[in-house]
Amino acid sequence: MNPMAQSVSSASGNVSGNSDIEGVCKWVxxxxxxxxxxxxxxxxxxxxxxxxxxxxxxWNSCGCIAALLQEICAIYPYINPPSLDAHxxxxxxxxxxxxxxxxxxxxxxxxxxxxxxxLYLYTFLNTNNRTRPFEYLRLTSxxxxxxxxxTDEPEVITFLxxxxxxxxxxVIMESGSELSKTVATFIMQKLxxxxxxxxxxxxxxxxxAHVATVLDKMVIHLAREQSLRLLKHVIRCYQRLSDDSRAxxxxxxxxxxxxxxxTFSNLLENDMATKRxxxxxxxxxxxxxPALPGGNVNTASSTNTSEAAPGSARIGLQSTMPPAVxxxxxxxxxxxxxxxxxxxxxxxxxxxxHTYSTALSQTAGxxxxxxxxxxxxxxxxSQA
Length: 384
Fold this sequence. Notes:
Leucine-rich Repeat Variant; 384 residues; mainly alpha
């Protein structure tokens, strides 16, 4: 057994036995061979939850990271014009799942950022094709970013604020599928929960207005097609924005009426945490809807929210937002995948149940979101 395999075996407590560890090492070595790479991606993706030290093993094995990046770059020509098929999506999503292991592990996360590996995924996020291969590609890519922000580390926030992740997330929040919207909004929430992230977004009126406009449109959409797992992150984003004094002043004129008039009362009936966030938001923007004891939302109260058109037009009423705060300092966290990979060939010609499970599991660790979702394959998720 090689030294790295011995390290992995020791770290995992020999739960699966040395033969399993040696098997993982065999597949890691197979990544560097183009003829065996696809099978290696599939097998390692299945084992990523059972081998806690898979990330250091991948990072410290010669040629493995280069092989994963080759898989990423090989898809670029199929993005525009859009010609990505299900088999290609399956394969690259397996590579992305291994990158998520690197993003999640404390021993590899810092080097993962220093190598600028998240930037390789931004091309996948900057697509609007709604076919399943593209949707799973976007969702799995978002899962890698979500794994980073879930750690709440300043280094991660610094990196992401220095990239274009915010506008990319905003586009997905506005026009993506519900799952993609949920993960993108979770990422935005984690950025806002960091003090530096909040200061960055509220530094200029333009940044704040862009975020507030998208959140406003999401609330209007959620009033028609209600989703608790998405709404709770939208409300948390609003509540965190209200912690900034200038953003709070702006929200007094552009807070969506649906958050005040009880539109979501039934949806939030059993979610005390989200009701508390909503009440705190309403108190902080000084609406006329008083917070009630126990986190209940007052459904009968009204507010002085502008009657102008939703979105940027309403936010535009507050265009006299005070000057930008001083420059943000450089001290600038989804969920780990937990759904087991489905058995079968790594070369399926349709989007496999395994790929769907990998993509869907990106939302599994969201705070209180989709915790009861059962993956039955593409288009067949159900509530347990």
